[in-house]
Every structure is written in C-alpha cells, then in structure tokens.
Amino acid sequence: xxxxxxxxxxxxxxxxxxxxxxxxxxxxxxxxxxxxxxxxxxxxxxxxxxxxxxxxxxxxxxxxxxxxxxxxxxxxxxxxxxxxxxxxxxxxxxxxxxxxxxxxxxxxxxxxxxxxxxxxxxxxxxxxxxxxxxxxxxxxxxxxxxxxxxxxxxxxxxxxxxxxxxxxxxxxxxxxxxxxxxxxxxxxxxxxxxxxxxxxxxxxxxxxxxxxxxxxxxxxxxxxxxxxxxxxxxxxxxxxxxxxxxxxxxxxxxxxxxxxxxxxxxxxxxxxxxxxxxxxxxxxxxxxxxxxxxxxxxxxx
Amino acid sequence: xxxxxxxxxxxxxxxxxxxxxxxxxxxxxxxxxxxxxxxxxxxxxxxxxxxxxxxxxxxxxxxxxxxxxxxxxxxxxxxxxxxxxxxxxxxxxxxxxxxxxxxxxxxxxxxxxxxxxxxxxxxxxxxxxxxxxxxxxxxxxxxxxxxxxxxxxxxxxxxxxxxxxxxxxxxxxxxxxxxxxxxxxxxxxxxxxxxxxxxxxxxxxxxxxxxxxxxxxxxxxxxxxxxxxxxxxxxxxxxxxxxxxxxxxxxxxxxxxxxxxxxxxxxxxxxxxxxxxxxxxxxxxxxxxxxxxxxxxxxxxxxxxxxxxxxxxxxxxxxxxxxxxxxxxxxxxxxxxxxxxxxxxxxxxxxxxxxxxxxxxxxxxxxxxxxxxx
Lengths: 301, 374
Hints:
Radius of gyration of chain A: 19 Å
Number of helices of chain A: 11
CATH class of the largest domain in chain B: Alpha Beta
Largest sheet of chain B: 7 strands, mixed
Radius of gyration of chain B: 22 Å
Number of domains of chain B: 2
Order of helices and strands of chain A: HHHHEEEHHHHEHHH
Shape of chain A: globular
Helix content of chain A: over 70%
Oligomer: heterodimer
CATH superfamily of the largest domain in chain B: Response regulator
Strand order of the largest sheet of chain B: 7-6-8-9-10-13-14
Largest interface: A-B, 40 and 38 residues
C-alpha cells in the first residue's frame, strides 16, 4: 500500500507538468483548431530562460528562495507569453485565412526554428540548474517519504490550473475565449474582438508552458534543448485523452496520464511504461473517440 | 572547342597533381560531438587534434602531413551510419571511434565493407569483436572483464540483496546480464530486482520507488552518466540511502554536476584508470601537454583511449610504411606487442580486442572528486 501511495505522488507530480503543457495545446486548438507544434519548444525555452535569469540576476540570493522563485516564475511567464504572442504574429496570423494545413506546416517550421535557436545559443550539452534552490530533502507524511520538491511542483501546477479555471469561467475575457471557441463568427457578431481573444490565448498558453519548463528545470535540475519533444508528445497525448479543446479535459488528461505511467511502471514493467500509457490511450479513444471530457468530434489535421 | 577541352584537361591534371602532392594521411574521427554524450566527443576531438599536431611537428608520417577528419555521430546509431558513410568516401586510412557500443555497432559493417580499419575507444559490448570482422579493433576493455570486476566488488562489499538496473542499450544490457550470470547462485546473495529504465527521460522516481520496495542493500546501474546523475539526485530526494555502483559509462564529471555533490558522494563506479591516475611516462607528458593547450586535464578516460587508438594506428602506418588495411590489420594483430600507450601497454589479440587491461573501482568523495579505491 505504501508503494501505491508513493507511486501516486510520483504520477501526480509528473502529471501536473503534463497538464500545464497540455493546457497550451488545448487552448490554441479550442479557439483556432490549430495544433501548435511549437508549444513544446516554448516549454524548453521557458526552462532555458529560467536558468539564465536565475544565474544572471541571483534572484534567490537577494529575495530568499521562496520570493526569488516566485518572481522568477512571473518573469519567465511574462517573457514566454511575449514570445508566444510574437510566434502567433509571425507564424500563424498571416495564415489565418489559408487552409488549415498551411498553418500546421508553419507550426512545425516554428518548432524546428525555436529548437535550433536554443541549441545555437546555449549549446548542445546538458545544462544544469544550480543546486539547493529548492529544498532537496524529503518530509514524512503518514509514513511516506515525500520529497519537498515534488510537493512544490504539485502545489504550483494545481495553483496555476485553479487560477486558469477561474480566469476562464469567471472573468469577462474568459467568457469571450469560451465564446470564440464555440463559434468565432457568432462571437464576432456579439461584439467580441476575436483577434484579442486569440492574442490572449497565445499569451496565457505559452506562459503556462514556460512555467512548466521552469518547474522541470528546478525539479530535475538537468535540461537539454531536445527535452521539449518528449514532454510535448506526452502533453499532446494528455490533451487528446481529456478531449482536445476542452480546458478541464487537459487537466484531467495530464494528471491521469502521469498516474497511469507511474502505476504501469510500478505494477507491470518499467521498460514498458510508455507502451502501457499509450495502450490505455487507445482503449479510451475506442470507447470515447472525443476523449474523456470532449464533446465535439475532433477534426482531422 | 578543342581549346576549351584542352584547358579543362590541363586544369584537371593540375589540380589532381597538386592535390596529390599536398595530400595528407587522413585519419577519421567519429564521435558524439552533439547529443547527450557531447562532452565525450568534443574531448575526443581535442585529444586527437593535440596528438596530430605533435605528430606533424615531428615530421608527420611517411613524409606527409597527418590530418584528422572528424564527423559527428550524435551518439545515435542512425546519425552514426550517415557519418560513417561520409567518412568512408573521404579516403581515410583508418577511423577512430566511437563511444557508445550501439553506435559503433551501426557502423562496423560500413567500415568493414569499405576496408577501413576502425579502432573504437569506448565500445565495450562483448559481441562487437565476436563477429569475425577483420578490420575492427578497440582500445577499451570488454564488458565480460568489467562484469567480473563488478561481481568481485559486489561480493567483497558483502552485498546480500542486489538490484541491477540497465537501460536496454547494447552496452548496458550486456553488462547487466553478464553480471547477473556471474552472481546468480552465489551463496548469501540474492538478486531482488532486474529491470530497465528508458534513457533520456527525466523522472525516474517511479523506478526508484519500485526498486526501493524490493528492498535491495546495493544497486548496480549499468547505464550512462546522464541517467546515473538523475537517479542519484532523485534517490536522495526520496531519503533513500542505498549505495549505488555504476559501470564505466557513469565515469564522467557531468554525473556529479547533474546529481549535486551531496547526492553523488559515496557513489562507486568501475573504470579503466582515470587520466590523473595513469602511471606511465607517456601519460604524464600527454597530460601536461593537454592541460597546457586546453587549460584543464581530460575529464574522461575515453578520449584518452581514442588518443591511444590514434597513436597505435599512426605507429602501425609508420612501421609498415603503408596505409594498406590488410598490412595494418596484420601488423596490429601479430607484430604490435606491448606498445607504450597513454593508458598502459597495448597489444591486440586475433579478434581485435586489447589484451590485459584491468578495471579499477572508484568512489566519489564529498567534494565530488573521483578517488581510486585501493
């Protein structure tokens, strides 16, 4: 039983990160019906920018580990949000009226461009976050040794998701985003500035992805310019699992995927853990083609 | 028209002869310049550049200059086979490399068909020299020898419950199975865990949690330093104090950088002697020259083993006065005896394996340094 709960926390922490990235995919898809392949590279960029800010500005030395990290997270969010908006302006907006496939190709191109930019600027080797910013000890909760960092990752991703949930459900802008996701034309007739909504989506989604990158850097300590690929694939899977275009779906899908992976590794075979996760995905899609919480049938891309 | 043709022919002849006169003896280097083993590959290049410079300062080979032609294998078998095909068409006399066994394996046949001598520097998987390839050599020892030392060390430490973890690569799986075979059935020792992780992931907590539940008092990890560092770090975050031992692929200072000094302290690993512990005169002179040129001593043993590959090949070319692969292979297998290498004496057996190298056990101390265990 102890094994079960420990693996559950492992899965929740990884799942939280998947969910944060999946939100970026799902928000863009919801409004534009576009799969933003460059999103995983914005995540990588978040990890690298976080490292640069951390080492160059010594935030945690000046403000203490807690406020330093919080400020760092906001700076990374801001920067990645700007990059996300620029990405939309340069790579997607000129293709708004073109066939959807053109935008997908443009997304792939943007992904390759961003990944190689990171490699050229930072080099191909592993980069390592400085040690000791987050406490490296474990705490005992009900007889379980749970690393502090894991709790921090879990809390941060939960907080970010709650904030997003309230933003989407309770604010005027959030309502506009939901309206634009249902029907852009009708939303425009209701006086909603759809271009502003799209800009908003490209600010919020990448910001969450950037924070996820920073969390990965702080949690695992080791980052690489190709790391976005693996996480992007898992997060995209999570978005589909929960029903792409659906915001609570991405949250549920991400956390579920993380937990399935951890449980597969724990009770079946570690070497087959990805295969197990994808088998579950296939099973779910057979019985619920639109994903767990999805309503509309996903269109072909 | 005739005039144009004449000029063209004249030009062609001129460039051909010019090229011939200036044509250096080319030695290929195939190494992981990018990717997760980039630090190994980049240092391999540094070592070969240095040795090549020294050789040219002494007059080169057979009156010609020596040049190193390097290609990036990315630490990936697919990239490597492309690199090997590019190298094979560039008129190289021999190729040095590469680091990972699976990567080397992808290129062995390409070089063999092109009749190019290949001297691997870090590929320790047993089967590489069991295929009867005529032109394949390696300056590093084999995994069966490593497994013997690993088994002896594990027995000496009095381990009762052992966990073995590999990463499904040619090298790591071979070493893990070899060690398992040697230790299975030993009295008072039980192998409680044997499984593989997926390389290049970042979260190994699920594996560590599962391993911890099996209750081992010692873990032998046969994979590479990137994953090794993360395992140590995440093990410490879990408050789990089991001792870890790694195979020779964990021998890289980046392991300590990734894990952090506190988490890496107490980690054992097997390795041929590190550059700083090398006893020979050649090694000391080389270390001094390397430090002078690059500002730091070589970090890992494998680039030095690549250097030995280069020295053995150039020595063979000088002795046989030829770059004919048949002659070189014959010379290396039958005539080269106890060549004073940077990593000790070098001779090859019929299979192309290096004879008589001994693995050492190292332990990481509290400062993150690698200390040779007596």
